[in-house]
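Figure 3 (text version): structure tokens given as input.
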């Protein structure tokens, strides 16, 4: 059972990943082609990454995820489309004594780096292990960290925005911003009258 602190951390990791990727907008432009993947394909890719990492230390990840949430994508300027684009936040855990957590991260880190991930956070302290990375062929954000009471590791994966197969990508525009009141050279708003 996840503790409130652990749930908050998983939510924070998902939020950081979303913000780091600029929502679901790609790094180049809001109407650049999105990668195509079904929800089932996204879930399978996230779970396969978790299983590959856990396999580096011969861990068995529980079948039932800690959390799984498909969300509508929004661009970094709050653009919204109605073409079914989505992203996924997926987390699962594996039992492991806390004093082995730091040691378990080492081969996982090597695996991620070999797959083209950039490690952005890393701590090997027993029962307080943490690793954050982003990249790979799917541009996923992944985090592995001590979970709950310290006798498990949680693996979290956040995907970029995907477009479902067979759907034409809608072109989106930024929301209209309210017109700003002109300012005088002094920096004050002109008086009305």
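Below: residues designed for each position.
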């Amino acid at each position: 059972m996840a503790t409130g602190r652990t749930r908050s951390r998983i939510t924070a990791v998902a939020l950081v990943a979303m913000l780091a990727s600029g929502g679901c907008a790609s790094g180049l432009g809001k109407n650049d082609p999105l990668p195509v993947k079904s929800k089932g394909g996204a879930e399978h890719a996230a779970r396969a990454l978790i299983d590959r990492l856990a396999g580096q230390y011969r861990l068995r990840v529980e079948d039932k995820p800690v959390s799984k949430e498909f969300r509508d994508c929004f661009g970094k300027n709050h653009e919204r489309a109605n073409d079914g684009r989505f992203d996924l936040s997926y987390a699962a855990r594996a039992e492991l004594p806390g004093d082995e957590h730091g040691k378990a991260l080492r081969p996982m880190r090597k695996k991620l780096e070999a797959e083209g991930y950039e490690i952005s956070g890393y701590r090997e302290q027993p029962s307080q292990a943490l690793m954050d990375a982003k990249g790979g062929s799917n541009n996923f954000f992944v985090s592995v960290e001590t979970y709950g009471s310290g006798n498990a590791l949680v693996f979290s994966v956040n995907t970029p925005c995907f477009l479902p197969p067979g759907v034409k990508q809608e072109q989106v525009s930024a929301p209209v911003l309210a017109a700003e009141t002109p300012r005088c050279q002094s920096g004050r708003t002109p008086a009305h009258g």
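Residues 4-20 form the longest helix (17 residues).
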